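Re: duplicated header lines in exported structure tokens

Our pipeline writes sequence and tokens for each protein into one text file. With two proteins the header for the second block appears twice in some exports. Here is an export where it did not happen, for reference. First protein block:
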Amino acid sequence: MQNRKQLIQAAADAVHKFGIRGTTSARIQELSGLSRGMVNLHFGSKEKLLLAVAEELSARYAGQWKAIADNPELDSAEKLIAIIKADFDPFVLNARDVAIWFSFRAEALSKPHIFPFIDSRDKGFRAVILELLEQIKNDGEYEGVNAKIATDALIALLEGLWTDYHLHSDIFKPEEALKICLFVLQSMFPKHFSTQSIHR
């Protein structure tokens, strides 16, 4: 099990440093300190090892928002704010992991087996956001708001902010990104969101 984790870590480091196409078995071997045969022993191939890297990143990200969504002590607006905050948490939003995400996405169309783990239209995440916004809409009686369009807008905004972080991680400020998201939500659901919501 330790060797398996070591290989996943080394493969992730290789993708970060060299990109998907530059991640060779030799480089994984060098970074892991393990023999080349270990890749085949634990994963069968380099491609399956890279798939394991994508799976791990996806599981780490999903673990954050699922734990928040399942928290019975939070109301819908509090859950949504917490999920957005988690999206900008260094646990998932850090230069190394985001670079790996974008490396995988650059290869997504040619590697369809990886696509489900890096899809910006993740069905589970989208369903949770939609459910929360539907609850907020009904609670606040926002008759003129389309929850599905609001969901699409918020997810597109989060995607754009991740891209901004990827390109400008040295000047990116998570607290400012959160304010941007709250500003957009406040324009649609004014009774539930404001800049003061950050301190909930």
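Second protein block, exported in the same file:
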Amino acid sequence: MPHIDSSVKLDFKDVLLRPKRSTLKSRNEVDLTRSFSFRNSKQMYTGIPIIAANMDTIGTFEMARVLSKFSLFTAVHKHYSLKQWEEFASQNPDCIQNLAVSSGIESFDFYKLKQILEAIPEVKYICLDVVNGYSEHFVEFVKDVRKCFPSHTIMAGNVVTGEMVEELILSGADIIKVGLGQGNLVLGGHWLPFINKHRWNMSLFLVFFSGSMCTTRTKTGVGYPQLSAVMECADAAHGLNGHIISDGGCSCPGDVAKAFGAGADFVMLGGMLAGHSESGGELIERNGKKYKLFYGMTSEVAMKKYGPAVTDYRASEGKTVEVPFKGGVQSTIQDILGGVRSTCTYVGAAKLKELSQRTTFIRVTQQANPIFSEES
């Protein structure tokens, strides 16, 4: 029989963080570095736990070069060849410790994964990524990868419920990607100046730009509000000494801080890193303005590019948009890190690891007043 869970489930847009007494004088006093020891691989990680998503428009080698300088992480997309990996590794040895090799779950994916990891043993992270992390086939694949690579740290997902987090951790994964159907959520405030400046039609903008590149919710009716998913999944993972990544739903630095405050160990970003010089996607110029193509990895564009194309038994679950070109990604990274540091000062967290302990969420009906959002 169908069942309705009537308990309240919330997204990032539904809450704000309550400020608390703080002894911090400046954002410079906040330490964003985290250190983790992973349950299954027994590896140690130290860095700022923000990850560029493994989309071919985001998780690029060019992005990795810049993020690594800030001690950020990149889940490199799975469409680079072995030769490209070898060339990058030889030219950028300092970046390797902050990279993960991404893989699907087909036999050819596993073969390519083994080739890369055998050729570049310095790479110690694997990102196993599927649209539906609830598949038994995916669980078995995680077990196979763990058996083959016992000392590598495995990221696996995506799921949104505690019981599946526990199953994947017990199957050999170290870090679980949490997030499902994050498209069509909220119009990020950082897009409003673009709308006003270029006189775009708001209704069209909402159709094509709201939320992330995922359309799973509208195509399938499946999803879970991200804030609640992170809180519930973090509780399940931490009970087993596992870790989670909040993957999706962030449209501004405040959302990144909320994800950490909710208990996420890592936060994965896609759309916030789109449209930069280091992002993948075609650069387009129209009427004197520059744009970059940004699309989800389950979009029709991606499926036609990498095959197989959309068939008669499946639907595209991703969008394709043209993002205003933003130049180098360094300024965006600094803005994100500055925002999270400011959050920590507001709640009195001297270190990022203290943020979830100092977080009290307040339910709200509005995030910000958009009246004066237009750039002068």
